[in-house]
Amino acid sequence: MLKLLLSTQTEQLSSYIDERTLTHIRYRQVNKFESYQEMDLISFDWYDIHNKHAKPVQVIIYFTRDYIFFICEGERCFKQVEPLVTEKATNEKTLYSFFLELLKGDIEHLEKLEEHITETEDELLKASRSACAEEIIAFRRELLRLKKYYEQLNQIFEGLTENENNLIPLEDLRYFRILDSKIDRLFSHVLNLRDYVTQVREAYQAQIDIEQNNLMKIFTVVTAVFLPLTLLVGWYGMNLRMPEFSWPYGYPFVIVLSIAVVTFCLFYFKRRKWF
């Protein structure tokens, strides 16, 4: 028997579920996976990975040989779950079909996300600093969201494939193991993407450091060029009567000396590849 309910309709379960379990469901005290002698309780926060702005909604599944109930948090969750379940199959097939449909398109989504990260890495040298920083932060948040999502599904399927209470027939258990392997691959893909984003962030930080070093190099060259001129200004700015003051070519000499010093410094720095 299949039932699809909102979290506000749990009183309808009183004739099927014992009061203790029903209290856990009502107050959302169900762990990710709980296995009892004649039933399994599954709870997870459903993230709509195709909608970054969607908030997670809780789904609780009560699963026995005779019944399978889907309890949804809110109308939006109810409308999302409804197309994924069917009354034309056994309870274990309904549970399998639900998770199979739930994971449909996830691999393609992760591949597109990987392409987006690669494009961001390629544009790292051309994009503005603020744009790159915002992109990297968005990637990290999205991957953290996906990591939490697949982590809880991983925990659920570990419990389902162990099948301690033999609720799932052996001939159907292999399908759940296939889904378990798929979730493992999705989870590993997310972890690899997190490492990739970390590398992109490090490359971005290295690019910032290079830009700062180039800027400091320019300031150093400018300071080094004008330092001898500052010395000349200080030297001839002293309140002393120097012999050059009475020399008719003293002023042109200082001008030529200043130009010669700047030219020499620029030539020397260029030769040493300081800029």
- How do the helices and strands follow one another from N- to C-terminus? EHEEEEHHHHHH
Largest sheet: 5 strands, mixed
Shape: rod-shaped
Uncertain parts? none
**Kindly state the mean pLDDT as a whole number?**
83
Helix content, binned percent = 55-70%
Number of strands: 5
Task: Specify Rg, calculated over alpha carbons.
Answer: 35 Å
Strand order of the largest sheet: 1-5-4-3-2
Q: DSSP strand (E) fraction?
A: 5-15%
Q: What class would the helix/strand composition place it in?
A: alpha+beta
Please give the alpha-carbon distance between the first and last residues.
77 Å
Number of helices: 7
Describe the structure.
This protein is an alpha+beta fold. Helices cover 61% and strands 10% of the residues. Strands 1-5-4-3-2 form a 5-stranded mixed β-sheet. Helix 4 runs parallel beside helix 6. The mean pLDDT is 83.
Layout of helices and strands:
Elements: E1 2-6, H1 19-26, E2 33-35, E3 40-46, E4 57-63, E5 68-72, H2 74-81, H3 91-102, H4 106-122, H5 129-162, H6 170-236, H7 250-271
Parallel strand pairs: 1-5
Antiparallel strand pairs: 2-3, 3-4, 4-5
Helix pairs in contact: 3-6, 4-6, 5-6, 6-7
In a few lines, what is going on in this structure?
The chain is an alpha+beta fold and 275 residues long.
Brief descriptors of the model:
275 residues, alpha+beta, single chain, 7 helices, 10% strand
